[in-house]
Amino acid sequence: MAAIGDSDQRTLADLRAKIDRIDEAMHRLLIERGTVIDALIGAKRTLGKRAPFRPQREAEMMRRLAARHRGSLPLATVEHLWREIISTFTFMQSPFRLIVDYGTDPAAMHDLARFAFGFSVELVAADGPADVVARVGASGADLGLIPRPSGRSESAWWRGLSAEGGPRLMALLPFIAPKGDIAATPAFVVSPALAEPSPPDLLVVAASGAADAARAARDVIVLADAGSGAKRELMLAVGPDTDSSALARLGLGDIAPIGGIARGIALDGRADLLRAAGSPA
């Protein structure tokens, strides 16, 4: 093995010094962001006790992050760092817990929870999806995380999201659908009433009817279904041009709004209603 000469040592020292300067600048910016959050907390005191989560703004931040990302650093790493920052500063504005239904794959749900919400937030285990909804509703401050079933759900727990002023579906994770297995478990985020709600990209509704008719429809995605036979309980994501009358023409009834989600990004390039095609540079 060749010995490292004086010139190589100087190059290494220069590069390490550059890394130190970058690290210091990043830390200064985080401190500056904290002072802005302090001012934001003061400005938001007039908004009352409602939850400070802003899913559409967070979605826009993730889209900008993905669009500008370059280099060898994995996009998933950058996304996690940003989500840690967002979650921590949100926690500073209004402390919250994450109520988690660990489902059939607790390890995967734990990984997703920490990837998306960081380490400042306490994770609390729940006894199934309905328990998550009940706890989020009772707290008025906490978020819930429920795995999206790969098959038929045991119950139409999402009907509990239709109560006026109660919890709503806020997001579908992962937002940036990865190519690998990093935090790839699909899950729903449930929130209490938001302080600053903004129109979502996709509405989410509960409905009863034939799942096949819903799956064949344009601008409709079946997120979950329960029951048996031709008439089932469905959770649907629908595009902005699809209203209750359009769903009724599909033979669907008992339609109730239960939330809304932002349209995510698919890194494999396969776009659908839930995610637009995208790829890291």
Mean pLDDT over the full residue set: 90
Helix % is 25-40%
How are the strands of the biggest sheet laid out side by side? 2-1-3-6-4
Q: What integer value in Å does the Rg equal?
A: 22 Å
Number of domains: 1
| 3D shape | globular
Low-confidence stretches are none
Strand content: 15-25%
- Please count the beta strands (DSSP E, at least 2 residues each): 12
The number of helical runs is: 7
Alpha-beta content class: alpha/beta
Q: Could you walk me through the main structural features you see in this protein, from its secondary elements to its overall organization?
A:
- The longest helix is centred in the N-terminal third of the chain and has 38 residues, at 6-43.
- The protein starts with 5 loop residues before the first helix and ends with a strand.
- The chain is globular and about 75 Å long.
- Helix 2 (55-68) runs antiparallel to helix 3 (75-93).
- By secondary structure, it is an alpha/beta fold.
- It has one domain.
- Strands 2-1-3-6-4 form a five-stranded mixed sheet, with helices on both faces. The chain has a four-stranded antiparallel sheet with strand order 8-9-7-10. The protein has a three-stranded parallel sheet with strand order 5-11-12.
- It is built from seven helices and twelve strands.
- Strand 1, helix 4 and strand 2 (122-125) form a beta-alpha-beta unit.
- It has helices at residues 6-43, 55-68, 75-93, 106-117, 129-139, 211-216, 244-249; strands at residues 97-100, 122-125, 143-147, 168-173, 176-177, 187-191, 202-209, 220-226, 232-238, 253-261, 264-266, 275-277.
